[in-house]
Design goal:
Number of domains of chain B: 3
Strand content of chain A: 15-25%
Largest sheet of chain B: 2 strands, antiparallel
Number of strands of chain B: 3
CATH architecture of the largest domain in chain B: Orthogonal Bundle
Distance between the termini of chain B: 92 Å
Distance between the termini of chain A: 87 Å
Helix content of chain B: 40-55%
Strand order of the largest sheet of chain B: 1-2
Number of helices of chain B: 10
Number of helices of chain A: 17
Structural class of chain B: mainly alpha
Oligomer: heterodimer
Chain lengths: 471, 283
């Protein structure tokens, strides 16, 4: 670091995390397999929705403006479901961060998961920490070039699979896969894959912790979510200090073996206390527990702990149980809001009608006087048929028994609405000359649509404008 | 600059300056950040070379890629027209009397006609086609020259009382102020609201039968062959009150419309006709 005084910019110092075994490492492997599995495989799940609709379980159909999620189909005007999910995701992040620190960062963040995968590949090809450091320092040779090239190739293939999986969410996966291979897919598909391949390759292979430290806003925001009761990865310095060899009688539990530093993917020393760089991946806990186990000392020198317990533990008392740390007004409040929004969305999802109606009265002009003196209003109706089959919709208007209803281009009071579509329909309502609603300035009007197949109905209120002469 | 000092508490170097006892730790930016910054500058320079950017005395540098938003719009319009070529062809050959409102062709014609209407017709007839005094309301079911698709298309194509098209609808009502006495005009104006009655009593009825019925009909229901308005319905282009009627009879009225066949393509004329016909009053 001595040369940094001359330069305002520091080069990245490469980090070579050592392999580690333990319960948190196993948990992280499991999460890696599950999250990557979900990501790569979801587009290939099929879901039968009938003949007119796509059979992909999860599909964002941008051109058709539909979002399919198994049995749920979201139309653009129902985008509040997506907004609600995003709010729930945000609140969930708040909840977990206030309870368990940066668990999102340490376990499930794509940056962490892919970096883990990339480091795994790196270790398979180049060896563990010491071998990698040696290779890094060695001059370029045929062997180094071969190892590097192999590693980069595998990384690029993972990146390609990542970008490739992404585009399958936006089109029928088997069709798109065939088109991609035969070079017949849309340019935007290749462009998206290229960009995501490049970002995965660079972020997972070379940027790694730099993304967390310099690019991600969450490490900076998390300070507002955490307090002294947050369980987070920490070092029991009162147990560990002063450090020294096992044989040193003055030394405490920490033998300064540096295992916690060697395994850290962020390249920090957790014994320096909580740091912005720490993503709480808990690998140092595994590393230290391993050493403590071998030395026959109590595990948990590095552990999940709440800062508020430190004085109690230093005084020799037992720490408060975890549930007392987790259960506090803040987490209860986050959970309550999260549950409330979730419940409201589920409720909204289940009362969602299969047919819908919106009415836009045409107010330029507000009314038209016809040759016989009758007064006509025009409305533009949008009839939504969310069924997978064409339905016959009956249209009625109630409010004044004298009204005569006419549908554009149809002699009947019913129109066929194609499957999974919105039909725009002009509807004319005419009040006879000198009738009450013809001369009033406004008369309430309610439009009804009825699915003639099953009697399901929807209605919308609007007004009928008259000449105002009689009011 | 003072020699950098190592801060005891953090073990980090300071920047070597101090203000009122406050020192700054040296927290260098990552070097890749600098490279990214330079890359954006290079990208920016490349962008101004590739795309229109630098303002000149007239216009701007065109850019090596020759991109222009106007050209892009023009290309998109061409692409749409090419895609609609089949519909446009059908629109030109379709017998308008047999226009089926449930077809794609009709929807295309109405959409195209609506665009033309808003650009060319709305100045007089209003954006909602409700017209104004002297400019017919196209939403109602009263038509001066006929309300079938073909009749509407004819009126649009050739216009009304213009000097440019020999086939334009052309009739003119005489200014009866030069023919009748004011009392006679007043009598007619008082009689007109009682229409339709044929062969009524009184001087108004007699004067109407003698002077007006030849065009407007004995019962005042008008004559579309001559564009003579129906005086027996509820629709008045220039107002149906006594004063307006006196003014109309005294000085006469006649509206003028350009021959749009000379300004629009035949496809556009047919499309506007379909749009107007579909506004609610078409016959």
């Amino acid at each position: 670091m001595n040369d940094t005084a001359d330069s305002l910019y520091a080069a990245r110092e490469p980090i070579f995390p050592r392999r580690v075994y333990g319960k948190f490492r196993n948990l992280k492997w499991a999460i890696l397999v599950v999250t990557l599995g979900v990501y790569y495989l979801t587009p290939w799940i099929r879901w039968d929705r009938g003949p007119n609709l796509p059979d992909q379980a999860v599909l964002v159909d941008l051109a058709g403006r539909r979002f399919y999620f198994f049995w749920i189909e979201i139309w653009p005007h129902e985008f509040y479901f997506v907004a609600g999910l995003l709010i729930m995701a945000g609140l969930g992040l708040f909840l977990f961060t206030s309870a368990l620190g940066r668990v999102w960062c340490g376990y499930t963040c794509p940056q962490t998961v892919w970096t883990d995968l990339f480091i795994l590949v790196e270790r398979w090809i180049e060896g563990d920490r010491n071998a990698r450091i040696k290779l890094h320092r060695a001059a370029w040779s045929l062997r180094k070039a071969r190892l590097r090239l192999t590693k980069w190739t595998v990384w690029a293939l993972i990146g390609l699979a990542t970008g490739g999986a992404w585009v399958f969410y936006f089109a029928d996966a088997p069709t798109l896969a065939r088109d991609l291979v035969t070079l017949q897919a849309a340019p935007v598909a290749y462009g998206t894959i290229a960009v995501l391949t490049a970002t995965t390759f660079i972020f997972g292979g070379f940027m790694r912790e730099q993304v967390c430290i310099y690019m991600c806003p969450w490490p900076r925001i998390q300070g507002a979510m955490m307090d002294n009761d947050t369980l987070t990865v920490g070092y029991r310095d009162w147990r560990g200090e002063p450090r020294g060899k096992k044989s040193d009688p003055n030394a405490a539990d920490c033998v300064d073996c540096n295992a916690c530093v060697a395994v850290c993917p962020m390249g920090i020393d957790i014994r320096n206390g909580q740091q912005m760089e720490c993503i709480t991946c808990a690998l140092c806990i595994d590393a230290c527990d391993d050493v403590m186990g071998k030395l026959g000392r109590e595990r948990g020198l590095i552990d999940y702990l709440a800062p508020s317990d430190a004085p109690r533990e230093q005084a020799g008392e037992k720490p408060r149980p975890n549930w007392q740390h987790v259960l506090r007004p803040r987490t209860v409040l986050y959970t309550a809001i999260w549950t409330l929004i979730g419940a409201a969305m589920i409720y909204a999802l289940f009362i969602r009608p299969e047919i819908e109606l919106t009415v836009a009265p045409i107010r330029n002009p507000t009314y038209v006087t016809l040759a016989d003196g009758s007064v006509r209003n025009t409305y533009e109706l949008r009839l939504r048929n969310k069924h997978g089959t064409e339905r016959m919709f009956g249209v009625h208007a109630s409010g004044d028994i004298m009204w005569v209803l006419a549908l554009e281009g149809s002699p009947y009071h019913a129109v066929p609405v194609p499957a999974d579509e919105t039909l725009r329909l002009r509807v004319y309502v005419t009040a006879p000359r000198a009738s009450g609603s013809a001369t009033a300035s406004e008369t309430p009007l309610r439009f009804w649509v009825e699915d003639l197949a099953n009697g399901e109905r929807a209605s919308k209120d609007t007004v009928f404008n008259g000449t105002g002469a009689g009011s | 600059m003072d020699k950098p000092r190592v801060d005891e508490l953090t073990g980090r170097e300071t920047m070597g300056h101090e203000f009122d006892g406050i020192e700054e730790l040296n927290t260098p930016m990552p070097r890749w950040w600098l490279w990214t910054f330079y890359a954006t500058i290079i990208w920016g320079i490349g962008y101004t070379i590739a795309y229109p950017a630098w303002p000149m005395i007239s216009g701007a540098t065109a850019g090596l890629l020759g991109y222009s938003t106007r050209a892009e719009v023009a290309a998109q319009i061409d692409a749409h027209e090419a895609a609609n070529a089949g519909l446009t062809g059908a629109l030109l050959t379709q017998d308008m009397a047999a226009f089926d409102p449930q077809t794609d062709l009709h929807r295309y014609a109405v959409a195209r006609g609506g665009a033309v209407f808003r650009a060319q017709c709305s100045q007089c007839h209003g954006a909602g086609a409700a017209g104004a005094t002297g400019y017919p309301n196209l939403l109602d079911n009263d038509w001066l020259w006929g309300g079938t698709l073909e009749q509407i298309a004819y009126s649009i194509r050739h216009g009304i009382r213009n000097e440019t098209d020999n086939d334009a609808h052309w009739t003119e009502m005489p200014a009866f102020g030069e023919i009748l006495e004011p009392e006679e005009i007043a009598a007619i104006a008082e009689f007109i609201p009682t229409l339709p009655v044929s062969g009524g009593e009184g001087s108004g009825a007699t004067l109407f039968a003698d002077n007006c019925a030849s065009c407007h009909g004995e019962d005042g229901t008008g004559d579309r062959e001559q564009g003579a308005p129906n005086l027996a319905d509820a629709i008045w282009l220039y107002g149906g009150d006594y004063d307006s009627l006196v003014e109309t009879i005294t000085y006469s009225r006649f509206g003028v419309m350009p021959a749009w066949g000379q300004r629009l393509s035949e496809a556009d004329v047919r499309a506007v006709a379909a749009y107007v016909h579909g506004l609610g009053g078409g016959e």
